[in-house]
Amino acid sequence: MPITQASPNGVMNSAVPFPQWVDAIVLGSASAESYTVPAGAGYAVITCNAPVWACISGTATIPAADTTDGTSSFYLAAGMQCKLGSGKTLSVIRASGAAIVSIGVYHA
């Protein structure tokens, strides 16, 4: 039986149109980069060609020990849909090698 994951309430859970705005971040090894969500954003589809760590509340880091206070970066292996408000800053980092992160934005 395949594993399925339900979409959070409000997140697009069916076929969606191509994003209205698309940006890309080219990451080097172990170097965090920040991305400011454009004005009018509501949701985003974030994909990457290699695993990355992402953080919306600060600078993304690669965990080296337990973090149990809610501030850890989120592991993103392939892609996700999420709600990203205008002006928020998303930080991403790759542990080794290079990675490209694509961010497709849908207006609110």
Write a structural description.
With 108 residues, the protein is mostly beta strands. The chain has one domain (21-62, 70-107): Sandwich (Jelly Rolls), CATH 2.60.120.10. It is built from no helices and eight strands. The protein has strands at 21-27, 33-36, 41-48, 52-55, 74-76, 79-83, 89-93, 99-107. The protein starts with 20 loop residues before the first strand and ends with a strand.
List keywords for this structure.
Jelly Rolls; 4-stranded antiparallel sheet; globular
CATH class type: Mainly Beta
Are there runs of 5+ residues with pLDDT below 50, and where?
1-7
Overall mean pLDDT stands at 85
Please name the fourth-level CATH homologous superfamily: Jelly Rolls
Widest sheet: strand ordering: 1-8-3-6
Overall number of strands: 8
**The CATH topology is what?**
Jelly Rolls
**Count of helical regions:** 0
User: C-alpha Rg, in Å?
Assistant: 14 Å
Write a compact overview of the structure shown.
The protein has 108 residues and is mostly beta strands. The protein has strands at residues 21-27, 33-36, 41-48, 52-55, 74-76, 79-83, 89-93, 99-107.
Helix/strand layout:
Elements: E1 21-27, E2 33-36, E3 41-48, E4 52-55, E5 74-76, E6 79-83, E7 89-93, E8 99-107
Antiparallel strand pairs: 1-8, 2-7, 3-6, 3-8, 4-5, 4-7
